[in-house]
From TrEMBL:
A molecular-function term among this protein's GO annotations: pyruvate dehydrogenase (acetyl-transferring) activity
SUPFAM superfamilies from the UniProt entry: Thiamin diphosphate-binding fold (THDP-binding) (SSF52518)
Keyword Iron set for record: no
Gene: pdhA
Record keywords: Oxidoreductase, Pyruvate, Thiamine pyrophosphate
Protein name: Pyruvate dehydrogenase E1 component subunit alpha
Reaction(s) catalysed by this chain's protein: N(6)-[(R)-lipoyl]-L-lysyl-[protein] + pyruvate + H(+) = N(6)-[(R)-S(8)-acetyldihydrolipoyl]-L-lysyl-[protein] + CO2
Length: 336
């Protein structure tokens, strides 16, 4: 997968390389997301998670690479495939998992579930179940940043399945018109529910979809955390400088179905196996660290640490009490 760019952005080629410490942090965060999602899938299969549950397995390099270029105060908003963004933003795995199981200790006190949890402390604004709806909310967050006179950026994630929604193009127009500090991240995992992007989109270069409004576009391999971070560094700097929005398309792949109820019969098992074998983002970083001389035992120690965190989160999610019925009447109106 090649990096492509338009309108003066280099596609990340000129950005600094990741240090060994950076790669270790990326490895830990990606493994945390992967193991967390695997355990969430297990809990769903046991009937402990109800409703919808969309897993991020395979796409970890996208959010981890971008998050490494953000700072305190930057806003994050995404769709229903949101657990990875939450963990990368620093939200407590206990609170995220407990929300999945509908418990009092969850971020939305057990009332939101997988698709609807938020953290004002971590500037994470959801989790949204309506396809493309978060894009227009994302430019609202960017407008707030500009209105307040900060250099904070709004990172707005959406998938290729939402890329041709009318509200997305309306958001492009407003973001460009007001030069809003919004980084649009288009996670192209090839399939919008069960439909291939090749069958659903007349535009084949989605990173160019902002061109009518003069929005610079970038295209990067989303299975390579170093490439994602490099592209994010340039895009975020563009937004912080007050030069307006950027559209970053990241080519990625989800190993599981659209949601836990999707058997994914619209693609061949061999396709999934080929991506896992040759393009897995965690394996790529693991190989890089070993080539740099990091001991296998150190990586094993990191794996064990992640395992302990996820086991603790799963236990908490099963032992935290269910919300009191009185919670039905909270978080409805703002009380002075």
């Amino acid at each position: 997968m090649s990096n492509e760019t338009d309108r003066g952005l280099s596609g990340g080629h000129n950005s600094r390389a990741m240090t060994e410490a950076d790669l270790k942090e990326a490895y830990y965060q990606m493994v945390l997301i992967r193991r967390f999602e695997e355990r969430a899938g297990q809990l769903y299969g046991m009937g402990l998670i109800g409703g919808f549950c969309h897993l991020y397995i395979g796409q970890e390099a996208v959010v981890v690479g971008i998050q490494m270029e953000l700072k305190q105060g930057d806003k994050i908003i995404t769709s229903y495939r949101d657990h990875g963004q939450m963990l990368a933003a620093g939200m407590d795995p206990r609170g995220v998992m407990a929300e999945l199981t509908g418990r009092e200790g969850g971020y939305s006190h057990g009332k939101g579930g997988s698709m609807h949890m938020f953290s004002s402390e971590k500037h994470f604004y959801g989790g949204h179940g309506i396809v493309g709806a978060q894009v227009s909310l994302g430019i609202g967050l960017a407008f707030a940043n500009k209105y307040r006179g900060t250099d904070e950026v709004s990172v707005t994630y959406y998938g290729e399945g939402a890329s041709n929604q009318g509200q997305v193009y309306e958001s492009f127009n407003l973001a460009a018109l007001h030069k809003l500090p919004c980084l649009f991240v288009l996670e192209n995992n090839r399939y919008g529910m069960g439909t291939s992007v090749e069958r659903a989109s007349a535009s084949k270069e989605l990173w160019r979809n902002g061109e009518p409004w003069g929005i610079p576009g970038m295209h990067v391999d989303g299975m390579d955390v170093e490439a994602v971070r490099a592209a994010a560094a340039e895009a975020v700097a563009h937004c912080r400088a007050g030069r307006g929005p950027v559209l970053l398309e990241v080519d990625t792949y989800r190993y599981r179905g659209h949601s836990m109820s999707d058997p994914a019969k619209y693609r061949q098992r061999s396709e999934v196996d080929e991506v896992r074998r040759n393009h897995d983002p965690i394996d790529r970083v693991r190989r890089e660290l070993l080539e740099r001389g990091v001991a296998e035992s150190e990586l094993k120690s990191m794996d064990d640490k992640v395992k302990a965190v996820v086991l603790d989160a799963a236990e908490f999610a099963q032992t935290s009490p269910e919300p009191d019925p009185s919670e039905l009447w909270t978080d409805i109106l703002v009380e002075s």
